[in-house]
Amino acid sequence: MHEIIRLVNRNLTISLNMGFVIWQIISPLIYIFVAGFAYTALIHQVPFGNKTLDYPAFIATGMIGFNIMNSTLISGIIIWNDRRHGMFEQILVGPFTRAQYILSNVYTVGIIGLVSAAMITAVGYPLFFKQVEFNILTVPLVIFASITGSILFGSIASIISTRLKSSEGFNVIINTVFLFFAFVSTAFYPAQGAPPILSTAFYFNPLTYLVDVVRAGIFGYFNGLVATEMIILGIGAAILFLIATKLLSKLEL
Amino acid sequence: MYCIETSLLSKSYGDFVAVDGIDLKVEQGKIFGFLGPNGAGKTTTMKLLTTLIPPTGGQMNILGIDAISSPLEVRKKIGVVLQQPSYEPTLSVEKSLEKYGMMWNVEKKIRKDRVEELLSAFDLVDIRKKKNDDLSIGQRRRVQVAREFMHDMDLLFLDEPTAGLDPSARRGLLDFIKSKVKDGLTIFFTTHILEEAEYLCDDIAIINKGKIIAVDTPEELKNKFGREKTIKIHISEQKNISSLLSGIQDCKIEYDSGVIITVRSSQSEQVLQNILQILASNGITVEDLSVVPTSLEEIFLSVVKNSNA
């Protein structure tokens, strides 16, 4: 078995527990079914490309991106725990390189991101199935968004985990950053109609691009803006991954 | 053949020289003890030899491989138990052994057998289902050391492996290590506990301030640095003994309550003979007499003290 596969196997074993899996399903379900239907009274319909979506369908697709982002927290947690519990050094005196360690984290969050996206797609499907237009061209959009989004947010979590020394600091920073990403984005509500400053802020947030590309894939709507968002997402993921790799490889032992 | 061979190996952090041009030779199938006071450079040397950090100077050859140009090739053949604890908090004891074997690409069937063997050898059977996070420091250390034996290796680095272990677990671990050496394993071992080094090691190096100040077998170190012996004589009565023995040369004599005489000398046989003659000629009966050879601890303290001076 290749070294990276062995490390991914180990990462999945140490990170996935029943509590995490249940939370990954329950929290989006609450947003989809409780917030989705409760806010329908306020937000009836949301225009998206050439379509008009029901709010539950809109938020259910937003939750796919939200869940991908949340699950990539694991990347930061793995690195944080490995440093805190001495496994980072132990792995690096084993038959592994730093590059393999970093790549194994990327693959781990990629797998978790994809499974997460699939899970929420399955759960939310009853809400958006009427408007779904999956086809051979749009399904890859969802997969692209899941993978690049996982790498991007996984890199952010990794960067935070390499810069902080106290567990309190790590938790506060990571929760604040991810809370900002979650609520200053188009995951929960559309940019149209929001105050101009806020709707502009939405587009300084990578979760907006991730969610928009996922929606484009599910509702079969592809235009120049989606293509641009995909490019930004890809470039953002590449840059942040390089920064995370640089910081990890410079971590003192 | 040497498993470890270094030449002028150095590591500096800015102006601070942690390891200062050390030359080491460790023979195959031996236990090599690496001793030194706190901050002497033991752990930095260990990190250099295990390729965890690169040297700033010198050369090192581990298991016939240039460890500076091919660190990964070295790491594939060695095992390392670092001084700091390392564990997966969410895994049970047996799962962490099993996963560690998987990480080293050990076949599933072999892994299963080794887990059982190590759980038994390290007295972990009763806590096999306990999570690492719930273990005591000593139990966690036992798991950490046991885990390293999940994979095959030619050379094992142990950085204070018995830290936190109770005497029985410590003896068990040392005996287990000895049994592995009989099977051909070479061990590089650092410790603060000098009885352990004396019990276990074939060769010993003492490091201080980043430099090797002595290397030899424990016996040779004693011969070189431990010629001085301590003689304790218990006499029957107090009879102005200090003035009687004042003429004895080449020794230091202490009188405790007048009836116990402690003599330290590098020419112990001659000094003892002289003292016994004086005691006999003055009608003083010797009730008890013992000669204590110098321990490795005394040698260690003396060598480090001389090096500091």
Short description:
The complex is a heterodimer of chains A (253) and B (309). With 253 residues, chain A is mainly alpha-helical.
Task: Provide a descriptive summary of the structure in words.
The complex is a heterodimer of chains A (253) and B (309). Chain A has one domain. Helix content of chain A is 74%, strand content 3%. Chain A has a two-stranded antiparallel ribbon. In chain A, strand 1 and strand 2 form a beta hairpin. In chain A, helix 2 packs antiparallel against helix 3. The model of chain A has no long low-confidence stretch (mean pLDDT 87). With 309 residues, chain B is an alpha/beta fold. Chain B folds into two domains: 218 residues, P-loop containing nucleotide triphosphate hydrolases (Rossmann fold, 3-Layer(aba) Sandwich); 67 residues, Alpha-Beta Plaits, CATH 3.30.70. Chain B contains eleven helices and 14 strands. In chain B, helix 3 crosses helix 4 and helix 8 packs across helix 11. The mean pLDDT of chain B is 89. The interface between A and B is medium-sized, with 22 and 25 residues.
